[in-house]
Amino acid sequence: MTQPGTPDAGKAEALVFRVEGMDCASCAGTITTALGHLPGVSDINVSVTRERMALSLDAARTPVGAIEKAVRSLGFVPTLLDGKSDAAPPAATPHRHDHEHEHGLACAHDRAHGAPVASIKTETPWWRSVKSRHAAIGVVLVALSFAAEFFWPQSSRYVFSAATLVLVAPIAKRAFAAARLGAPFTIQMLMSIASIGALIIGAVEEAAVVVLLFLIGEVLEGLAAARARSGIKALGSLIPRTAMVEDGGNLHEVSTDQLAIGQTVVCRPGDRIPADGVVLAGISSVDESPMTGESVPVAKQEGSAVFAGSINHDASLRIRVERAPSDNTIARIIALVEDAQEARAPTERFIDRFSRLYMPAIVAFSALVAIVPPLAGFGTWDEWIYRGLALLLIGCPCALVISVPAAIASGLSAGARHGVLIKGGAVIETLAEAKTVAFDKTGTLTMGRPRVTDVVAADGDEARLIAIAAAIERESSHPLAAAIVDHANEAAASFIAGEDIRAIAGRGMEGRVDGREAFIGAPRFAAEAGGVSDDLAEAAAAFESKGKTVAVVVLDGAAIGLVAMRDEPRPDAGAGIAALRELGVDSVMLTGDNARTGNAIAARLGMQARAELLPQNKVEEIRRLAANGKVVMVGDGINDAPALAAASIGVAIGSGTDVAMETADAALMGSRITDVAGMIALSRATMRNIHQNVAIALGLKAVFLITTVTGLSGLWIAVLADTGATVLVTMNAMRLLAFRPGR
Ligand SMILES: Nc1ncnc2c1ncn2[C@@H]1O[C@H](COP(=O)(O)OP(=O)(O)OP(=O)(O)O)[C@@H](O)[C@H]1O
Ligand SMILES: [Zn+2]
């Protein structure tokens, strides 16, 4: 084969393949080991749940075609995903967010030697797959063999032997392909040795049935794996396939994939919105539960942002498309969850290491069982070889290997469907152990929309006080500033211009008004900036003990008045804290606000408060809390980013899509405090599920190890135990899909 003369030959390139047919989780291990022996191949990462294989390849040393050939020889169907043209066919997977783009795919090589490019097939229905056909042939051949036994008992052993050989041949072929590529320990190898060995010792019926059961088991495993995969794909199916685009007054239907930014689409009541965009006309209510998990419809009118996948309830909406299909919120959520499934949990890494040793250990043990007892004079050779062969079949670690990723994939999907995005297994493990949750106050526990409730001017001129305050606050992005400016506008306060205005982070604002030095900020800082009269200080304290935040206005070193503001707690904040307490998790409020206000609000919510914290103090506080165990920090990501980063797990919370979901370890799309407890409960449920799965997998192996050695069970049971455990573990993991966090 000629090497394509690409300029970057000799350098490694990242490639991503779709690989079909990986149901047994140890398949991933086989592929990794086998390809790892090829020159120029590195960084192999195989995901059974996503049917993906990523690797970096130096095409000068091994051509892409050789990779595909190797994977095919192992019994799987690889398809190179083209990163440049969108490989997904619109009908089958219209909204696949192919973030494979980010891996920088090459497509020059494969065109050169004719490998399939841009041809992701639709998923083969299971009854048409190679495995199902293989199993069907198996049923027919084994049935014929039993018929032959009935009619011609003398020749039946040859019929059974022939059937076994026909059925085991493709399995053995895969086994030898893997062995040649450096992966001798595969379930196919164990299966081939066991069935051919059984033929040799004369257990012909069993040999045939064992191969048949193995083939049926593979079909079942494939079915279970496909169901497990469908969890997150379901999110993608929320986007309609077509959209009505308005074009010069005419409406015509186009594929959602083809939508471009700036186009106008019309969404009728009852339909799902096809793209992220802005409402141009129409008043309706929209169910955004696919993004936020919140099924109470949200009112939309001209100027409102809407998201692809949400359901338009009442009336037609004209929407301007603001995001490309591959970039919309739901696509980003899907991509995040898919990436999260790749992030391996520590438990998973441990099990992977364990299972790499497990299979060779069982093979060695089987050999001992087959040889030692008869040598020592216990029983016959046939009897012990039979037990040794049956033991080989116990050596498949499939169920164990799939136990962690299956549970994590289900847990992540269950969360994502309710607006709880968790970025991987490691995050789940840590969340499950959380001891303390620290909450930012403003915008997290509270709505983040303070309103001015009281204005006190030392000289009685409240309008002027508000005008001065607004003159400075106009330049601030702080929510308190917005409240004061809003209030000034509502009260139609006269406009005063400020100069030289600057923010003093965590304290307030400074500047010049009417040629005088002005400061606005918390009373304790106002006291530093100048005199605060006893009357004003007393008034401030009274407001603060009611949970209000006070800003004092200082002019030329003397306080001239104050503005009190109230920021309402989120409606479910109290319930959210109570739910955490029920889980045995402590809640702490971290706030830059003063202690009286913080304590007043915290007391109402039933939690502790740490107040008057500058941003760096919040980080120190997180470190202090971490001495008692894992700390989760929940914040809106606006001025608490360092604290979010310092916590064991940083959780971003926000309404719908303003969430800083890409940066945090987890994101709550629905702005519900109750989701924090829901997320921890989901993580604990996922960990419980993992432990159950490991127990099922190891327990069944242990039981059948004993019954096999003692001769209580034979070949059939050993195969049933293997595939049965895999199916059981997958099914158990899928129970998590029904978990509803926070409800
Ligand atoms: N622009 C401003 N106007 C008035 N007061 C301010 C301003 N900026 C900060 N402050 C004062 O400084 C305090 C701390 O501000 P900071 O921004 O650190 O906390 P916050 O965002 O209000 O509260 P939290 O820490 O709960 O999010 C505020 O409570 C307020 O009293
Ligand atoms: Zn298996």
UniProtKB/TrEMBL annotation:
It is a multi-pass membrane protein. Its EC number is 7.2.2.12. Residues 13-79 form the HMA domain. InterPro entries: ATPase_P-typ_cyto_dom_N, ATPase_P-typ_P_site, ATPase_P-typ_TM_dom_sf, ATPase_P-typ_transduc_dom_A_sf, ATPase_P-type_domA, Cation_Transport_ATPase_IB, HAD-like_sf, HAD_sf. It is found in: Cell membrane. The chain crosses the membrane at residues 135-152, 158-176, 357-378, 384-408, 690-709, 715-738. It comes from the Bacteria. SUPFAM superfamilies: Calcium ATPase, transduction domain A, Calcium ATPase, transmembrane domain M, HAD-like, HMA, heavy metal-associated domain. CDD domains: HMA, P-type_ATPase_Pb_Zn_Cd2-like. Belongs to the cation transport ATPase (P-type) (TC 3.A.3) family. Type IB subfamily. This is P-type Zn(2+) transporter. The lineage of its organism: Bacteria, Pseudomonadati, Pseudomonadota, Alphaproteobacteria, Hyphomicrobiales.
